[in-house]
Amino acid sequence: MASYIHVPFAVPAVPSLHITVDQQDVEAGSRRLMKEMRPHWDPAQVKLKVFTEGITNKLVACSVDDSLDDVVLVRVYGNKTELFVDRENELKSFHVLHAHGCAPRLYCTFQNGFCYKFIEGSALDPEHVRNPSIFRLISRQLAKIHSIHAHNGWIPKPNLWLKLEKYFTLLPKEFEDECLHARFLTEVPAHQELEEELAWMKKHLSSLGSPIVLCHNDLLCKNIIYNEKEGRVRFIDYEYAGYNYQAFDIGNHFNEFAGVTEVDYNLYPNKNVQLQWLKSYLEALNKYKGLGTEVTNEEVEVLYFQVNLFALASHFFWGLWALIQSRYSTIDFDFLGYAVVRFRQYFKMKPEVMNLKLTE
Fold first, then answer.
1. Is 281 exposed, middle or buried (0-12, 13-18, 19+ CB in 10 A)?
2. How far apart are CA 221 and CA 218, in angstroms?
3. Whole-structure pTM value
4. Please, what is the angle between helix 335-354 and helix 297-328, to 10°?
5. Cα(95)–Cα(114) distance, rounded to whole angstroms?
6. How far apart are CA 245 and CA 191, in angstroms?
7. Is the pLDDT of residue 354 over 80?
């Protein structure tokens, strides 16, 4: 029940198409889908754009002209991602977020993916999320999602520990490729050490009192779409959405200031930037809850303390995730190297954040 998402009754049902898109030929599959979803389109006029930034799924934009009014995005699930992504929960999250104006319209599902409405704007890079005028938009949008109430006063539980425990059951123990296996043995912490760290985190982070809210849980830069003309941001990709610790969602986003393909943790926001971000977030959260906008310095400091401790859990989460991806993903990305980067940053950051103290 920890990840239970209730879809409002007013949400219309979407078609479910019995079509499977070949991951090695997403363009052909996308054209087949458009014949069903947009039968009035001339197949000869359909234009496709394959996005290459994603490291989990494959994404194709389909249109018939240069207008952005009717662009259909086709999202094809990555190989074996159903092992660690709850696809039913993802679709429920999509519906709930759309009902609250936080997600685009979902057009249909198919056997290994779904189609949805294109959001006009630009996917951000690490340089953008440091810009105060943009990060205030991001903080307010995240506050809007965090303010969405659970159904009928239900008290949700965090999905963090359940997911981490499930990831442990999926971790590879060896690799067929000798070079990959050698790296795995020498660069990745031993299974027992990782289990000990998980037990430590669960004990210490659970006691911090961070509220359980509806979270995005994967707020990397490319999942934030900025519409400069309208002066707003929207978030995409809800694979990991669910009820979780407020501080995890924010700490996870702060970690993503470092980027994904060329990770640089020198870009992790300093305390001054974080305090500005968190103050903007708390003001928006209070406003969405009907509590005014006044926020005390003490409230900001407490959230700062919680966020930086939960940033540890974010490194650990994506370290495990990358190990699993290194075993199953067919996407050309060094997942094992990424896992090593995340675990190294976890162990580097741990003593630093453990020295943080709340001011009396």
1. buried
2. 9
3. 0.94
4. 150
5. 13
6. 25
7. yes
Q: Tell me the DSSP string of 62-77.
A: EESSS-STT-EEEEEP
SS3 content of the chain, % helix, strand, coil (to 5): 50, 15, 35
Residue from 55, 127, 50, 34 nearest 339 by CA: 55
Q: Which residue has the tokens 């610790």?
A: 245
- DSSP characters over 301-353: HHHHHHHHHHHHHHHHHHHHHHHHHHHH--SSS-HHHHHHHHHHHHHHHHHHH
Q: Where does residue 328 rank: exposed (0-12), middle (13-18), buried (19+ CB within 10 A)?
A: middle
CA–chain centroid gap for 341, Å, is: 18
> What's phi and psi for 159, nearest 5 deg?
-90, 0
Adjacent-strand bridge partners of 226: 122, 233
Contacts with 159 (C-beta within 8 Å, 6 or more apart), sequence order? 2, 3, 242, 243, 244
pLDDT at 110 exceeding the cut of 90:
yes
Task: Give the residue from 309, 254, 301, 257 showing the smallest Cα distance to 282.
Answer: 301
DSSP assignments along 23-87, one per residue: TT-HHHHHHHHHHHH-TTS-GGG-EEEEE---SSSEEEEEESSS-STT-EEEEEPPTTGGGT--H
Give the CA count within 13 Å in the CB-facing half-sphere of 343: 23
Residue located via tokens 């961070």:
210
A 10 A CB-CB count for 89 gives 18
d(CA 60, CA 49): 6
The mean per-residue pLDDT over the stretch 271-281 comes to 98
**For residues 350 and 63, what is the distance between their CA atoms, to the nearest angstrom?**
47
108 strand-pairing partners: 115
Query: Checking DSSP bridges between strand 106-110 and strand 16-17, what pairing results, if any?
Result: parallel
Q: What is the C-alpha R_g of the chain?
A: 21
Q: Are strands 232-235 and 224-227 parallel, antiparallel or unpaired?
A: antiparallel
Are 102 and 234 in contact, with CB atoms under 8 Å apart? yes
Residue 1 scores a pLDDT above 50: no
